[in-house]
What we know:
By secondary structure, the protein is α/β, with parallel strands linked by helices. Helix content is 35%, strand content 21%. The strands form three sheets. Strands 1, 4, 9, 10, 11, 12, 13, 14 and 15 form a nine-stranded mixed sheet that branches. The chain has a four-stranded mixed sheet with strand order 3-2-7-8. Helix 1 packs across helix 9. The longest helix is centred in the middle third of the chain and has 16 residues, at 142-157.
Amino acid sequence: MAKIVTLGEIMLRLSPEGNDRFIQSDTFRIIPGGGEANVAVSAANYGHDAYFVTKLPKHEIGQIAVNALRRYGVHTDYICRGGNRVGLYYAETGASMRPSKVIYDRSDSAIAEADPSDFDFDKIMEGASWFHWSGITPAISDKAAELTKLACEAAKRHGVTVSVDLNFRKKLWTSEKAISVMRPLMKYVDVCIGNEEDAQLCLGFKPDADVEGGKTDAEGYYGIFKGMMKEFGFKYVVSTLRESLSATHNGWKALIYNGKEFYQSKHYDIMPIIDRVGGGDSFAGGLIHGLLTKDTQGEALEFAVAASALKHTIPGDFNMVSTEEVNSLAGGNANGRVQR
């Protein structure tokens, strides 16, 4: 299998039990996770040599995050140890018409203050097939944005395929700042993943689709995909299309374009959602595996959508599913019967 590298911040998520609200909780569960770390865990689950690159403090709280990655087979060789803190975020799981809620406490984390000298990106990218990052990483800090650029440059020097999940986070930066940082980074990207909102807020593209009203008409994406590919030279443009009917009931499908043809995946009706945090990351991880191992972009996309649909049923950030489980669902086995 392939060597896959991801770069970003792994945080500790503090969550009440079940659907409890923050203010009624006496205890929080510790759940490690973060965009690119979640992708690395997916890649490791599918049998790849997955490496996650970040900086974490030397103390025991940093070790919690390192151990979580190791537990699921992610290589931690390139994690720099130092700095003062691990980023935290609090996540309250919604239900029905009450949305889930996230509160960040991630300022001044070790990776936000990391220096280029902390990483040898040429060594990290040597022998790699794929490098994945998301718009969250350059949003963390200007230093992290510089690291992202250096990693992308090294990936290109070593002939590595680069994917990005645009992942706009309004609590981390403004759209103006995002566009100024993200657009120049697109010249390194082969595979661009992002929904309609991400494309608009990170790159300045707007699709013709009524997403708020739940009308995710794929036709509205054809123009934007072609425009993005023409401007940035991507090999693939990919978008998930989520219909948020309630916090526990979503419609889910995706669309991919390779410059010649569009492919729209089958639609999944996900209810009840157990935990949608990490849903997009599980899609990215599935897509990377699909594009590396499947014969067509359609098969790759179906694998990614099925993987992500399954993630919505699993508590925590990580998508703990096997290749066989995803292939089974992608192949049409969605009845949920006990496997004996």
